[in-house]
Predict the structure.
Amino acid sequence: MATAFDNISNYLSTEPTLAPSLTKSLPSTYKCSSTTCDEKSISRCTKCSEYYCYTHVYGHIHSIEHFEILK
């Protein structure tokens, strides 16, 4: 008899992931605005519309409250 854990394991092994790949979901124009970074951005500043990756978002001049997460 299958346990609940077995049912979950079987489901997870057969279902495709629901989370989109960051590389596939963002156009190449959304590069991090930091001059030394080639990473894709994950957020956009709503004050100045600059895009930043996770590493560089905290160094931006505007407060973190002004950033939106990109999907």
